[in-house]
């Protein structure tokens, strides 16, 4: 019996989220994407993902706050942070996740290349 891998995407840029969802689907993931932190949290709890792709600069809560929430909720997923803003935002979230939650985190700068997304999700 094959286990379905889950990919959870949160990004306030719908076009980018669609690209990530498409790549994830090609790689065999069951994908859910949203721009709502509340929906992201509900889905995370209901169906814990194997991989999370998240933006950092979003309307409240931003990705740094969301990373803190993931740490508090014992996240075991591998996390890919995608941001088109200053790398310092992504690095701040990475520090929170790695040092407070011992999470596996990768950072990809937007605009992301499809090859980089595939590699991150593989």
Index terms:
122 residues; alpha/beta; Rossmann fold; five-stranded parallel beta sheet; globular
- What is the rounded Rg? 13 Å
Any idea of the CATH class? Alpha Beta
Low-confidence stretches: none
The CATH architecture assignment turns out to be 3-Layer(aba) Sandwich
CATH superfamily, please?
Answer: Response regulator
Into how many domains do the coordinates divide? Answer: 1
- Structural class, from helix and strand content? alpha/beta
Shape: globular
What fraction strand? 15-25%
Q: What's the SSE pattern?
A: EHEHEHEHEH
Cα end-to-end separation: 20 Å
Helix amount, in percent? Answer: 40-55%
Mean pLDDT: 87
Largest sheet: 5 strands, parallel
Number of helices: 5
How are the strands ordered across the major sheet? 2-1-3-4-5
CATH topology value: Rossmann fold
* Extended strand count: 5
Structural description of this entry:
The chain has one domain (5-121): Rossmann fold, CATH 3.40.50. 46% of the residues lie in helices and 23% in strands. The protein has helices spanning 14-26, 37-46, 63-72, 87-101, 114-121, and strands spanning 5-10, 29-34, 51-55, 78-83, 105-109. Strands 2-1-3-4-5 form a 5-stranded parallel β-sheet, sandwiched between helices. Helix 4 links the parallel strand 4 (78-83) and strand 5 (105-109). Helix 3 runs parallel beside helix 4. The longest helix has 15 residues, at 87-101. The chain is globular, with a radius of gyration of 13 Å.
